[in-house]
From TrEMBL:
The keyword DNA-binding does not apply. GO terms for biological process: dATP catabolic process; dGTP catabolic process; dTTP catabolic process; dUTP catabolic process; response to stress; TTP catabolic process; UTP catabolic process. PANTHER family: NUCLEOSIDE TRIPHOSPHATE PYROPHOSPHOHYDROLASE. It comes from Microbacterium pseudoresistens. This is XTP/dITP diphosphohydrolase. Its EC number is 3.6.1.66.
Length: 220
């Protein structure tokens, strides 16, 4: 573990020096970094889904760099500074709270029982939230956001969110407007959720197949 700690500390120190001495990095803000964070996150996803271990190791490093970069920027904030140690400390405290079956006396023998403890701890931490939808990032991709919102809405509305909100429909049962297309897409996401499928991943993987078909037709 000490070797791992040393490597992480070295990475944090490298980031600190880059922030202080690199002209480009000196002017970067949290907002400026958002596109890079999104890109690096998707590159990690690609590496996971393609099963490329070397690529995954590299992309996880690039994603870690984004975390270190944000922490280095935050450390220079004049009003509410915090650094990577504060981030790590807060993370450790939260994970200990959310795993009372590991670090406390609670018992969880199944994944469902683990979720009970997790959700209870999370609810206690987020007492100020008034809606089940609070805390859901609206910048998520639409399919992933739909699946997340359906999961949050289910205890409140049951299956109602997947019910069509529009009236018209073509004779073939196909959407005849963009609004009806939205209904149809939401219904498909609800179907994916009912089966335990990831709608976003399903479309990504199908698109990879389409890319392969295109490249094969091109002779690439």
């Amino acid at each position: 573990m000490s070797g791992s700690d040393d490597a992480l500390r070295a990475a944090a120190e490298t980031m600190g020096r880059v922030r202080e001495e690199c002209p480009w990095s000196q002017r970067i803000t949290h907002r400026d970094l958002v596109p890079y964070l999104v890109e690096e996150s998707h590159e990690v996803i690609d590496a996971v889904e393609t099963g490329d271990r070397a690529e995954l190791r590299e992309e996880l490093g690039d994603l870690l760099w984004q975390v270190l970069f944000h922490a280095a920027i935050a450390a220079q904030d004049a009003d509410e500074p915090f650094d990577i140690d504060d981030v790590a400390r807060g993370l450790t405290e939260k994970m200990v709270r959310r795993h009372p079956h590991v670090f406390g006396d609670a018992v969880a023998r199944t994944p469902d029982e683990v979720l009970v403890h997790w959700n209870a701890a999370k609810a206690a931490e987020k007492r100020e939230r008034r809606s089940v939808l609070d805390g859901v990032p609206r910048s998520m991709p639409a399919l992933a956001l739909a699946q997340k919102l359906l999961g949050r809405a289910a205890p409140v509305l049951g299956d109602a969110p997947a019910a069509p909100r529009t009236d018209g429909e073509s004779k073939r049962g196909e959407p005849i407007s963009e609004a009806e297309l939205g209904d149809a897409l939401l219904a498909l996401v609800a179907q994916a959720r009912a089966h335990g499928w990831d709608a976003e991943r399903a479309l990504r993987e199908r698109l990879r197949g389409l890319e392969d078909d295109v490249r094969a037709a091109e002779g690439c």
